[in-house]
């Protein structure tokens, strides 16, 4: 079946320029209506957009491989190291909705290029500092930059490529590049960490600048809506981000100070109050960051919950396995990168056929199949024993996780933007990516808490808390799979009732 993204465009985007005529370098390409015969300019546009998403995914997992080396050089423990990852995903997830709004109001081209520039500069600066807290702060800044590039990039695609085969092909390439960045980040991270963990921080910088230079030539302009600063729900953005930061901090610190300690209880209460404030602001604001009415769509809500479970489980699993392989088994970064290579190759290979699969199979079925693959991979890893060979304990898991990511990632992105009007594409794309990053941040906090409350293992043995941590990840995947099956059953029964009404009528 066709991907349900109802954003059909029938006019040439060149006719939608704002009154100030853009330069030739910013000229909008013709509206792409077919899946073949794309011009070099169209391909360059897709390379820039997909390349930025690739970098966003790469940055999360690539740095993850370098955490043990980074911790050794800077004297950071597990709790501090998790903030290297969580700082990025919280900045990313916390401001994605604001990024979507900004792209709709300020212009997709302007927002995308400005955020890409910030991302590149922050990458270079973070690699040069010796201060661990500054590195974490810059990781947060990079996450914020990604929060603006992602919804802007996806909106550019959905308004440049016509609904149907052309958009299906473009979105398939785009989303698979994002998944490939996350999967291949482990490989890149291992290779670069052999040189220095700082190389993993600086690598995205020059690439982002190169994409910026090309993007300035090929990204189309878009009309800007009249607005004032009241259109930006800054209070909503601040309260939602603060709520997430407070919740993650509370979960991470709880094992050390105690779950029933007054400070822990206060932090949880603050997170609840901030969340309630965010909802109240969204209800009353004339231009809410999150129009709550959009959540009436079961399809959209399911896609967002599935995205959170998918990414949360995988990023937490990667964190645990990285510590186990390097700290306990003594694997080098290059050994670890080669060990994870099959997953990345599977995700990259899926780019050649995933668009055709999305044309023919319901996204709900694909999401369910992806969670089955994830679950098999996690359960297989629970069989790990000290001294087990790579082929026995890790390779099957890596293959199943690669399959799960290749199937689930493009499916949740496709389903999340289905049936959304053109002027809310930034909101819808920002919402699903927010869910992805929130899932990652919360599961990282939970898994760090589990590992931190266990006795550390000896070299060559399972690290403390590893089995309970993987079990929790597998349990989350089971819940997500069951939820997807319930949604699928509900929709089929609803469709059957509709057919019965038509026949009886």
From TrEMBL:
| Keywords assigned | Cell membrane, Membrane, Transmembrane, Transmembrane helix, Transport
User: Could you tell me which CDD domains the record lists for this protein?
Assistant: MFS_MMR_MDR_like (cd17321)
Q: Where is this gene product found?
A: Cell membrane
The superkingdom listed in its UniProt entry is Bacteria
Residues passing through the membrane, by range: 42-68, 80-98, 110-128, 140-161, 173-193, 199-219, 231-252, 264-283, 304-325, 331-353, 365-382, 388-409, 430-454, 466-490
Example GO molecular function: transmembrane transporter activity
Q: Name one GO cellular component term.
A: plasma membrane
Pfam families associated with the record: MFS_1
Membrane topology of the entry: Multi-pass membrane protein
Protein's organism = Williamsia limnetica
Compositional bias segments (type: Basic and acidic residues)? 15-30
Q: Return the protein name.
A: Putative MFS family arabinose efflux permease
Task: Return the PROSITE patterns for the record.
Answer: MFS, SUGAR_TRANSPORT_1
Q: Does the keyword Transmembrane apply?
A: yes
Q: Region labeled Disordered — which residues?
A: 15-34
Query: Which residue numbers delimit the Major facilitator superfamily (MFS) profile domain?
Result: 45-495
Q: What InterPro entries does this protein map onto?
A: MFS, MFS_dom, MFS_trans_sf, Sugar_transporter_CS
